[in-house]
Amino acid sequence: MNPPDNHWLTRPATIRRLWIIGYVTLAATVALQWFVPIHGYFGVDGWFGFGALFGFFSCVLMVFGAKLLGALLKRPDTYYDV
């Protein structure tokens, strides 16, 4: 019988801490816009939090695009059967 995997990255307390660190880091990068002046080249890229919103919506668009591409390129389960 194999012993249970007790790696530090699989412990629930560590996972929770990593999520909290990630949230705090993301919030801090957006909050830094209050102290660092942003000079946008276009009208919208100077808005507060534009980079975070643009990154989030770009990621959502890529996920939906990948799902659509996967549906278009999918082969049937019996494709390689002889």
Description:
The chain is mainly alpha-helical and 82 residues long. The longest helix has 24 residues, at 50-73. The model has no long low-confidence stretch (mean pLDDT 91). Helix content is 54%, strand content 0%. It has 2 helices and no strands.
Order of helices and strands: HH
Mean pLDDT: 91
Number of β-strand runs: 0
Range of helix content? 40-55%
Radius of gyration: 21 Å
Distance between the termini: 39 Å
Tally the helices: what do you get?
2
Into which percentage range does the β-strand content fall?
under 5%
Question: Quick gist of this model?
Answer:
With 82 residues, the protein is mostly helical.
What would the keywords be for this entry?
82 residues, mainly alpha, 0% strand
List the helices and strands and how they pair.
Layout: H1 12-31, H2 50-73
